[in-house]
Amino acid sequence: MKAWSILPCEWKDVLSRLGARPFRAEQILQALYREWIGDWSQATTLPLDLRETLARECPITHAVIADESASPDGTKKLLVEFEDGNSVETVLIPARERFTQCISTQVGCAMGCRFCASGANGIVRSLTADEIVAQYMCGRKSGEITNIVVMGMGEPFANYDETMRALKLINAGKGPNLGARHITISTCGVVPGFERLASEGIQFELSVSLHAPNDRLRDVLMPVNKKWNIDTLLAACRKYTLATKRIITFEYTVINGVNDSPACARELAAAVRKVPMAKVNLIPLSPVSHRPEYKTPDESVMLMFLDVLMKNGVQTMLRRSRGLGADAACGQLRLRNMGRA
Ligand code: SAH
Fold this sequence. Notes:
alpha/beta, two-stranded antiparallel ribbon, DNA polymerase, domain 1, 11 helices, 34% helix, single chain, TIM Barrel, ten-stranded mixed beta sheet, binds S-adenosyl-L-homocysteine
């Protein structure tokens, strides 16, 4: 069992299974999450034989920062390489009093959204919980992380168990202690995940990538829609909101000439109003090299879209695309590195 897949509350049991004294749990948590050791040999409060046992039975996952790129807006993107040579990207986004880390949950992605670079080459594999935590650890070397968004590569609800274990660990009071409301999970609409998340009783934030207001368009942009169409998705969202009293934010990437008409905006407003307290984030498409036909809309189109949504009673935010100079947010750093290999 990997050290970074063990929740703080589980350490006593793990220790007793290893034949070690349970009071060592406190020292272990101190070493892992206050001293942030990267190797058991650094846990000097523990007896040598226990350090050796832990290194053998509960190794600390090694992840290295294989590449790094910075954008003029202060966004930094890291390529995090795991023990098997696979890598994912994680993006660090400073903003006033926040320092947000965008994390990945899979190497590549199976969802195949047409405008997204993460899925351009399909999926290699899912990350394990300890690898997701290792990725967070790489990020926090750049500063104290105040927020996490699960908006990197991969679909978190297609890797539910490992993602949730990692997020619970990062959220744990005796672990990194990052507040649940500071952690946002984003899904493309893998419907079974909604009920599972609601049943966790943890106040993680939830975003849903909608990107199209009707099935005709969404079927084309997001193949996941053929499995769970918009009505099914919105019904799951509604149920989630009613059960948890938590709001859902719909992400809508605006693509020039594709989903940016006033009619689309009106249709979108009608759709999201089926979900109580829903909000919309509008994001201009960030261009991706494998789809040159998809272009960023003009600012005026973004403002028109915003206006229509607001006039139709939908709380809407215009999001700037951060990190463009770092090839950030859409699987582009890994693509660039793959191109070089
Ligand atoms: N699989 C999850 C999380 C990863 S993607 C999901 O789909 O929500 C994070 C967000 O970036 C999603 O809303 C996704 O649709 C969006 N995105 C992907 N490619 C993009 C691009 N080229 N421009 C703008 N947003 C993009």
